[in-house]
Design goal:
single chain; Immunoglobulin-like; five-stranded mixed beta sheet; 4 helices; 12 strands; binds copper (II) ion
């Protein structure tokens, strides 16, 4: 279940942040929170709840229907339609009470969905931020130290990851089914999504917005590494980048000689 207290304080923090920074550019501004609630677990829970609810309702309706069909079936010598009509009060009650029960259940599920949506839009402050530029047909990630990867997003286990996304051509959608999240990336705008990789493993990333003839080939993966392994990779790639950017070493001065000018 959702941690409602955490959710509530997250919302308050987000509202306070909005109030405190009225001038924040809408696109740069990302509501943040100090609590980490993984929305993926919440979505899974909610999905199971929906499936259980509709299954129970389906079975209930089927059983009642079967009972009524059998009970009031036409038999030899028994004319149908002989049951006493309901009183007005009973008819209204039969219509209204079950509707309210099922509607209350629907609204309860919908309200949980709205609450989860707020969790999903509030990003934990303790996070790794990576920039994403999508394009036909690749995902290009840039890390805080300038390291760049394509179609492979390496992240450490146990830290929320925020992607700030844009696109260099058309609309794409960065979809990570295992993390139950997707978001459009588009030219001229910065959108964001976050996810919480908790243990090492590999997960699919795929484009979820038809973007051109090679759309279905636009896939990649999230590689979640143990933190030490991730840090080693990050440092190593960072220093490679520094070396490549360093100016070429100046040629050594001409060999000094001991000869004194004549
Ligand atoms: Cu695409």
């Amino acid at each position: 279940m959702l941690d409602r207290k955490g959710l509530f304080s997250g919302l308050i923090a987000a509202l306070a942040a909005i109030a405190a920074s009225p001038a924040a550019a809408a696109e740069k501004y990302i509501p943040s929170t100090d609590v980490i609630i993984d929305p993926a677990a919440g979505w899974t829970h909610l999905w199971n709840e929906v499936v259980i609810d509709i299954s129970l309702m389906g079975v209930l309706f089927a059983v009642v229907l079967a009972y009524l069909i059998i009970k009031y079936r036409r038999r030899p010598g028994v004319e149908g339609g002989g049951a006493a009509p309901l009183t007005a009060g009973a008819a209204i009650a039969w219509a209204v009470i079950p509707s309210f029960i099922f509607l209350a259940d629907d609204l309860f599920i919908a309200a949980n969905g709205w609450a989860l949506w707020n969790v999903q839009r509030n990003v934990p402050t303790d996070r790794l931020e990576i920039k994403l530029e999508s394009g036909m047909y690749s995902w290009d990630y840039t890390y805080p130290n300038g390291v760049h990867t394509q179609n492979e997003l390496k992240v450490p286990a146990g830290k929320p990851v925020l992607l700030r996304m844009t696109s260099r051509d058309t609309i794409h959608n960065h979809y990570m089914p295992d993390f139950k999240i997707k978001e459009d990336s588009m030219p001229g705008r910065i959108t964001y999504l976050w996810f919480y990789p908790q243990k090492p493993g590999k997960h699919l990333v795929t484009c979820n917005e038809y973007c051109g003839i090679m759309h279905s080939y636009m896939s990649g993966q999230v590689v979640v590494l143990p933190p030490e392994e991730y840090n080693a990779w990050y440092e190593q790639e960072g220093s490679k980048l520094k070396q490549a950017a360093a100016p070429a070493p100046t040629p050594a001065p001409a060999a000094a000689t001991d000869k004194k000018p004549a």
